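Researcher: Let's do a round of design. I'm pasting the C-alpha coordinates now; please hold your answer until I've finished.
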Protein backbone atom coordinates (compact mmCIF):
# COMPACT_ATOMS: atom_id res chain seq x y z
CA UNK A 1 0.00 0.00 0.00
CA UNK A 2 1.13 3.56 -0.78
CA UNK A 3 0.08 6.94 0.59
CA UNK A 4 -1.97 7.78 -2.52
CA UNK A 5 -4.09 4.71 -1.81
CA UNK A 6 -4.98 5.86 1.73
CA UNK A 7 -8.54 7.18 1.71
CA UNK A 8 -9.54 6.84 5.36
CA UNK A 9 -8.31 6.15 8.88
CA UNK A 10 -8.19 2.39 8.39
CA UNK A 11 -5.99 2.76 5.32
CA UNK A 12 -3.50 4.96 7.20
CA UNK A 13 -3.48 2.51 10.09
CA UNK A 14 -2.71 -0.36 7.72
CA UNK A 15 0.14 1.55 6.06
CA UNK A 16 1.60 2.52 9.44
CA UNK A 17 1.47 -1.11 10.57
CA UNK A 18 3.47 -2.12 7.51
CA UNK A 19 6.22 0.40 8.29
CA UNK A 20 6.54 0.40 12.09
CA UNK A 21 8.14 -2.30 14.24
CA UNK A 22 5.40 -4.20 16.03
CA UNK A 23 6.11 -2.87 19.54
CA UNK A 24 5.88 0.75 18.37
CA UNK A 25 2.76 0.18 16.27
CA UNK A 26 1.07 -1.50 19.22
CA UNK A 27 2.11 1.33 21.54
CA UNK A 28 0.08 3.72 19.33
CA UNK A 29 -2.72 1.28 18.60
CA UNK A 30 -3.28 -0.27 22.01
CA UNK A 31 -5.51 0.51 24.95
CA UNK A 32 -5.81 -0.57 28.58
CA UNK A 33 -6.93 -3.97 29.90
CA UNK A 34 -9.47 -5.54 27.48
CA UNK A 35 -9.57 -2.38 25.32
CA UNK A 36 -13.35 -2.09 25.77
CA UNK A 37 -13.27 1.69 26.16
CA UNK A 38 -10.83 1.99 23.25
CA UNK A 39 -13.33 0.24 20.93
CA UNK A 40 -16.35 2.05 22.36
CA UNK A 41 -14.74 5.43 21.70
CA UNK A 42 -15.46 4.90 18.00
CA UNK A 43 -18.46 2.56 18.06
CA UNK A 44 -20.48 4.93 20.29
CA UNK A 45 -20.93 7.28 17.33
CA UNK A 46 -22.77 4.51 15.46
CA UNK A 47 -25.62 4.64 17.98
CA UNK A 48 -26.36 8.24 17.03
CA UNK A 49 -27.88 9.21 13.68
CA UNK A 50 -27.68 12.53 11.86
CA UNK A 51 -30.93 14.18 10.74
CA UNK A 52 -30.25 16.42 7.73
CA UNK A 53 -32.29 19.39 6.61
CA UNK A 54 -32.69 19.79 2.86
CA UNK A 55 -33.41 22.62 0.42
CA UNK A 56 -31.40 25.09 2.48
CA UNK A 57 -29.50 26.60 -0.43
CA UNK A 58 -26.04 25.61 0.79
CA UNK A 59 -23.57 26.83 -1.82
CA UNK A 60 -20.57 27.28 0.47
CA UNK A 61 -19.83 26.55 4.12
CA UNK A 62 -17.81 28.13 6.92
CA UNK A 63 -15.87 25.44 8.82
CA UNK A 64 -14.15 27.83 11.24
CA UNK A 65 -14.55 27.84 15.02
CA UNK A 66 -13.23 29.89 17.91
CA UNK A 67 -12.09 27.85 20.89
CA UNK A 68 -9.94 28.80 23.89
CA UNK A 69 -9.62 32.25 22.34
CA UNK A 70 -8.13 30.82 19.12
CA UNK A 71 -9.66 31.14 15.65
CA UNK A 72 -9.32 27.84 13.77
CA UNK A 73 -10.13 27.18 10.12
CA UNK A 74 -11.30 23.70 11.05
CA UNK A 75 -13.24 22.37 14.07
CA UNK A 76 -10.54 19.74 14.69
CA UNK A 77 -7.03 20.10 16.13
CA UNK A 78 -4.01 17.81 16.59
CA UNK A 79 -3.91 16.81 20.26
CA UNK A 80 -0.55 16.70 22.07
CA UNK A 81 0.91 13.19 22.04
CA UNK A 82 4.17 11.78 23.39
CA UNK A 83 7.25 10.33 21.69
CA UNK A 84 6.36 11.41 18.13
CA UNK A 85 9.89 11.02 16.72
CA UNK A 86 9.68 7.32 17.54
CA UNK A 87 6.93 7.09 14.92
CA UNK A 88 8.62 9.24 12.26
CA UNK A 89 11.95 11.06 12.43
CA UNK A 90 10.31 14.47 11.84
CA UNK A 91 7.78 14.00 14.66
CA UNK A 92 6.23 17.22 15.95
CA UNK A 93 7.86 19.22 13.15
CA UNK A 94 5.72 17.40 10.60
CA UNK A 95 2.54 17.72 12.65
CA UNK A 96 3.03 21.43 13.32
CA UNK A 97 3.68 22.18 9.64
CA UNK A 98 0.65 20.21 8.49
CA UNK A 99 -1.56 21.85 11.13
CA UNK A 100 -0.38 25.29 10.03
CA UNK A 101 -1.19 24.49 6.39
CA UNK A 102 -4.77 23.70 7.41
CA UNK A 103 -5.06 26.63 9.80
CA UNK A 104 -5.69 24.66 12.96
CA UNK A 105 -4.22 24.18 16.43
CA UNK A 106 -1.67 21.58 17.49
CA UNK A 107 -0.11 20.56 20.77
CA UNK A 108 3.34 19.79 22.12
CA UNK A 109 3.57 17.33 25.00
CA UNK A 110 5.79 17.37 28.07
CA UNK A 111 7.00 14.09 26.59
CA UNK A 112 7.39 15.66 23.16
CA UNK A 113 10.54 15.04 21.14
CA UNK A 114 10.99 18.56 19.71
CA UNK A 115 11.38 21.71 21.82
CA UNK A 116 8.24 23.82 22.11
CA UNK A 117 10.33 26.95 21.44
CA UNK A 118 11.52 25.67 18.06
CA UNK A 119 7.99 24.82 16.97
CA UNK A 120 6.57 28.13 18.23
CA UNK A 121 9.22 30.12 16.38
CA UNK A 122 8.64 28.35 13.05
CA UNK A 123 4.85 28.20 12.97
CA UNK A 124 2.20 30.84 13.55
CA UNK A 125 -0.88 28.68 14.16
CA UNK A 126 -2.14 28.33 17.77
CA UNK A 127 -0.02 26.06 19.98
CA UNK A 128 -0.97 24.08 23.07
CA UNK A 129 1.47 22.86 25.72
CA UNK A 130 0.39 19.73 27.58
CA UNK A 131 1.98 18.94 30.91
CA UNK A 132 1.69 16.67 33.93
CA UNK A 133 1.63 17.75 37.55
CA UNK A 134 4.85 17.20 39.51
CA UNK A 135 5.55 16.81 43.19
CA UNK A 136 8.01 19.68 42.84
CA UNK A 137 5.77 22.77 42.72
CA UNK A 138 8.71 24.87 41.60
CA UNK A 139 9.15 22.57 38.61
CA UNK A 140 5.47 23.03 37.68
CA UNK A 141 5.91 26.80 37.72
CA UNK A 142 9.14 26.58 35.75
CA UNK A 143 7.42 24.63 32.98
CA UNK A 144 4.57 27.16 32.85
CA UNK A 145 7.04 30.04 32.71
CA UNK A 146 8.88 28.35 29.86
CA UNK A 147 5.66 27.85 27.89
CA UNK A 148 4.64 31.47 28.45
CA UNK A 149 8.07 32.73 27.39
CA UNK A 150 7.82 30.63 24.22
CA UNK A 151 4.53 32.31 23.32
CA UNK A 152 2.31 29.26 23.74
CA UNK A 153 -1.34 30.33 23.71
CA UNK A 154 -3.07 27.48 25.55
CA UNK A 155 -1.99 25.42 28.55
CA UNK A 156 -3.40 21.90 28.91
CA UNK A 157 -3.06 19.98 32.18
CA UNK A 158 -3.70 16.24 31.87
CA UNK A 159 -5.62 15.05 34.93
CA UNK A 160 -6.47 11.41 34.15
CA UNK A 161 -2.99 9.94 34.50
CA UNK A 162 -2.01 9.94 38.16
CA UNK A 163 -1.05 6.32 37.52
CA UNK A 164 -0.41 4.49 34.28
CA UNK A 165 -3.03 2.34 32.59
CA UNK A 166 -2.55 -1.42 32.22
CA UNK A 167 -1.50 -1.63 28.57
CA UNK A 168 -1.09 -5.35 28.02
CA UNK A 169 0.04 -5.10 24.40
CA UNK A 170 3.13 -3.25 25.65
CA UNK A 171 3.70 -5.89 28.33
CA UNK A 172 3.71 -8.61 25.67
CA UNK A 173 6.21 -6.85 23.41
CA UNK A 174 8.28 -5.31 26.19
CA UNK A 175 7.69 -1.78 24.94
CA UNK A 176 8.07 0.24 28.10
CA UNK A 177 10.01 3.08 29.66
CA UNK A 178 12.65 1.83 30.29
CA UNK A 179 12.60 -0.42 27.19
CA UNK A 180 12.65 -4.11 28.08
CA UNK A 181 11.87 -5.84 24.81
CA UNK A 182 10.85 -9.48 24.81
CA UNK A 183 12.47 -11.81 22.27
CA UNK A 184 9.39 -11.49 20.10
CA UNK A 185 9.54 -7.73 20.37
CA UNK A 186 13.20 -7.66 19.29
CA UNK A 187 12.41 -9.86 16.31
CA UNK A 188 9.70 -7.43 15.21
CA UNK A 189 12.24 -4.60 15.21
CA UNK A 190 14.55 -6.76 13.09
CA UNK A 191 11.75 -7.28 10.55
CA UNK A 192 11.48 -3.50 9.89
CA UNK A 193 15.09 -2.46 9.19
CA UNK A 194 14.13 0.82 7.47
CA UNK A 195 12.70 2.13 10.74
CA UNK A 196 16.00 1.39 12.48
CA UNK A 197 18.03 3.02 9.70
CA UNK A 198 15.93 6.20 9.95
CA UNK A 199 16.22 6.17 13.72
CA UNK A 200 20.02 5.98 13.83
CA UNK A 201 20.73 8.28 10.85
CA UNK A 202 18.75 11.25 12.16
CA UNK A 203 19.28 13.40 15.24
CA UNK A 204 19.44 11.69 18.60
CA UNK A 205 16.13 10.93 20.28
CA UNK A 206 15.45 13.54 23.01
CA UNK A 207 12.73 14.77 25.31
CA UNK A 208 13.66 18.49 25.31
CA UNK A 209 10.75 19.63 27.50
CA UNK A 210 12.21 17.53 30.33
CA UNK A 211 15.94 17.92 29.82
CA UNK A 212 16.14 21.10 31.91
CA UNK A 213 14.37 19.41 34.82
CA UNK A 214 15.33 15.74 34.69
CA UNK A 215 18.80 14.19 34.56
CA UNK A 216 18.55 12.33 31.26
CA UNK A 217 22.04 10.81 31.44
CA UNK A 218 20.53 7.49 32.43
CA UNK A 219 18.55 7.31 29.19
CA UNK A 220 15.38 5.28 29.42
CA UNK A 221 15.94 4.62 33.11
CA UNK A 222 15.74 8.36 33.74
CA UNK A 223 12.41 8.55 31.94
CA UNK A 224 11.09 5.66 33.98
CA UNK A 225 12.06 7.41 37.21
CA UNK A 226 10.28 10.55 35.94
CA UNK A 227 6.98 8.67 35.90
CA UNK A 228 7.42 6.72 39.11
CA UNK A 229 9.05 9.37 41.29
CA UNK A 230 8.28 12.86 39.99
CA UNK A 231 4.57 12.95 39.11
CA UNK A 232 2.23 13.77 41.98
CA UNK A 233 -0.84 11.51 42.49
CA UNK A 234 -2.12 13.80 45.28
CA UNK A 235 -2.99 16.58 42.81
CA UNK A 236 -6.29 18.24 43.77
CA UNK A 237 -8.55 21.18 42.87
CA UNK A 238 -6.59 23.63 45.02
CA UNK A 239 -3.49 22.80 42.95
CA UNK A 240 -5.44 23.41 39.74
CA UNK A 241 -6.69 26.78 40.98
CA UNK A 242 -3.15 27.83 41.89
CA UNK A 243 -1.82 26.84 38.45
CA UNK A 244 -4.67 28.56 36.62
CA UNK A 245 -4.05 31.77 38.55
CA UNK A 246 -0.31 31.58 37.89
CA UNK A 247 -0.79 30.95 34.15
CA UNK A 248 -3.37 33.73 33.84
CA UNK A 249 -4.49 32.73 30.37
CA UNK A 250 -6.28 30.02 28.44
CA UNK A 251 -6.05 26.99 30.75
CA UNK A 252 -7.85 23.70 30.13
CA UNK A 253 -8.04 20.35 31.87
CA UNK A 254 -7.78 17.21 29.74
CA UNK A 255 -9.48 14.14 31.15
CA UNK A 256 -12.70 15.63 32.58
CA UNK A 257 -15.63 13.22 32.18
CA UNK A 258 -18.44 14.44 34.47
CA UNK A 259 -20.62 17.49 34.83
CA UNK A 260 -19.63 17.81 38.48
CA UNK A 261 -15.94 18.01 37.58
CA UNK A 262 -16.68 20.53 34.83
CA UNK A 263 -18.28 22.85 37.39
CA UNK A 264 -15.28 22.42 39.70
CA UNK A 265 -12.96 23.25 36.78
CA UNK A 266 -14.83 26.50 36.17
CA UNK A 267 -14.73 27.32 39.87
CA UNK A 268 -10.96 26.73 39.84
CA UNK A 269 -10.44 29.31 37.12
CA UNK A 270 -10.13 27.08 34.07
CA UNK A 271 -11.34 28.42 30.74
CA UNK A 272 -11.88 25.04 29.07
CA UNK A 273 -12.19 21.30 29.56
CA UNK A 274 -11.47 18.39 27.25
CA UNK A 275 -13.61 15.30 27.68
CA UNK A 276 -11.18 12.43 27.25
CA UNK A 277 -10.48 8.93 28.50
CA UNK A 278 -6.92 9.12 27.12
CA UNK A 279 -7.83 7.15 24.02
CA UNK A 280 -8.96 4.20 26.13
CA UNK A 281 -5.44 3.89 27.52
CA UNK A 282 -6.14 4.53 31.21
CA UNK A 283 -9.37 3.34 32.89
CA UNK A 284 -10.87 0.56 30.81
CA UNK A 285 -14.62 0.38 31.17
CA UNK A 286 -14.96 4.13 31.53
CA UNK A 287 -17.56 6.02 29.52
CA UNK A 288 -16.77 7.63 26.19
CA UNK A 289 -16.27 11.36 25.77
CA UNK A 290 -19.07 11.53 23.20
CA UNK A 291 -21.56 9.89 25.56
CA UNK A 292 -20.66 12.37 28.31
CA UNK A 293 -20.83 15.49 26.15
CA UNK A 294 -24.43 16.45 26.94
CA UNK A 295 -23.89 16.22 30.69
CA UNK A 296 -20.69 18.27 30.61
CA UNK A 297 -21.93 20.90 28.16
CA UNK A 298 -25.02 21.51 30.30
CA UNK A 299 -22.93 21.75 33.46
CA UNK A 300 -20.38 24.07 31.86
CA UNK A 301 -22.92 26.52 30.48
CA UNK A 302 -21.09 29.60 29.20
CA UNK A 303 -18.30 29.31 31.79
CA UNK A 304 -16.08 26.91 29.83
CA UNK A 305 -15.20 25.95 26.28
CA UNK A 306 -15.95 22.22 26.02
CA UNK A 307 -13.87 20.03 23.71
CA UNK A 308 -13.58 16.28 23.35
CA UNK A 309 -11.27 13.65 21.90
CA UNK A 310 -11.23 9.90 21.51
CA UNK A 311 -12.03 7.56 18.63
CA UNK A 312 -12.84 10.19 15.99
CA UNK A 313 -12.21 8.85 12.49
CA UNK A 314 -14.76 10.66 10.30
CA UNK A 315 -16.14 14.11 9.58
CA UNK A 316 -19.64 12.92 10.43
CA UNK A 317 -18.43 12.04 13.93
CA UNK A 318 -17.07 15.56 14.32
CA UNK A 319 -20.46 17.00 13.32
CA UNK A 320 -22.19 14.77 15.86
CA UNK A 321 -19.91 16.07 18.63
CA UNK A 322 -20.44 19.68 17.58
CA UNK A 323 -24.20 19.12 17.51
CA UNK A 324 -24.01 18.21 21.21
CA UNK A 325 -22.16 21.41 22.04
CA UNK A 326 -18.45 20.62 21.68
CA UNK A 327 -16.52 23.68 20.46
CA UNK A 328 -13.82 21.57 18.76
CA UNK A 329 -12.65 17.97 18.51
CA UNK A 330 -9.14 16.66 19.20
CA UNK A 331 -7.46 14.12 16.93
CA UNK A 332 -4.84 11.66 18.16
CA UNK A 333 -4.38 8.35 16.38
CA UNK A 334 -6.14 9.98 13.41
CA UNK A 335 -2.91 11.87 12.64
CA UNK A 336 -0.37 9.59 14.35
CA UNK A 337 -0.87 6.72 11.90
CA UNK A 338 -0.45 9.04 8.88
CA UNK A 339 2.63 10.53 10.57
CA UNK A 340 4.11 7.07 11.00
CA UNK A 341 3.16 6.12 7.45
CA UNK A 342 4.51 9.15 5.57
CA UNK A 343 5.57 12.02 7.81
CA UNK A 344 4.27 15.50 7.00
CA UNK A 345 2.75 14.36 3.71
CA UNK A 346 0.72 11.76 5.58
CA UNK A 347 -0.60 14.21 8.17
CA UNK A 348 -1.47 16.70 5.44
CA UNK A 349 -3.36 14.05 3.48
CA UNK A 350 -5.31 13.01 6.59
CA UNK A 351 -6.22 16.59 7.53
CA UNK A 352 -7.16 17.31 3.94
CA UNK A 353 -9.49 14.34 3.91
CA UNK A 354 -11.04 15.44 7.19
CA UNK A 355 -11.60 18.95 5.82
CA UNK A 356 -13.21 17.55 2.66
CA UNK A 357 -15.46 15.27 4.71
CA UNK A 358 -16.60 18.07 7.02
CA UNK A 359 -17.32 20.38 4.07
CA UNK A 360 -19.29 17.71 2.22
CA UNK A 361 -21.15 16.59 5.34
CA UNK A 362 -22.14 20.17 6.25
CA UNK A 363 -23.64 20.63 2.80
CA UNK A 364 -25.52 17.35 3.10
CA UNK A 365 -26.76 18.40 6.55
CA UNK A 366 -28.04 21.70 5.15
CA UNK A 367 -25.89 24.02 7.28
CA UNK A 368 -23.63 26.85 6.16
CA UNK A 369 -21.86 27.31 9.50
CA UNK A 370 -21.12 24.96 12.35
CA UNK A 371 -23.10 26.97 14.90
CA UNK A 372 -26.26 25.94 13.04
CA UNK A 373 -25.77 22.36 14.28
CA UNK A 374 -27.91 21.53 17.33
CA UNK A 375 -29.21 18.48 19.15
CA UNK A 376 -32.25 18.61 16.86
CA UNK A 377 -29.92 17.28 14.16
CA UNK A 378 -29.39 14.03 16.10
CA UNK A 379 -31.38 10.94 17.05
CA UNK A 380 -30.01 8.40 19.53
CA UNK A 381 -31.08 4.80 19.12
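Researcher: That's everything. Go ahead.
Model: Designed sequence:
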Amino acid sequence: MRLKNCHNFKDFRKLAESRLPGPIFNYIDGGADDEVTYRNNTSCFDKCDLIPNVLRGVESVDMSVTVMGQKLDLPVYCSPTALQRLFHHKGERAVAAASEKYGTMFGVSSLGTVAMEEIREKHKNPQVFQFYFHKDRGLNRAMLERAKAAGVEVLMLTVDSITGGNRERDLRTGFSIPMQLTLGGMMQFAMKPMWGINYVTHEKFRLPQLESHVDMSGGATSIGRYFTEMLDPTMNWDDVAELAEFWDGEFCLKGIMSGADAKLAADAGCTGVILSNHGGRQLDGSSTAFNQLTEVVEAAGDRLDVMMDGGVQRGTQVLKALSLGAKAVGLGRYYLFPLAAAGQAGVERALGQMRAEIERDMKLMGVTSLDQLTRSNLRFR
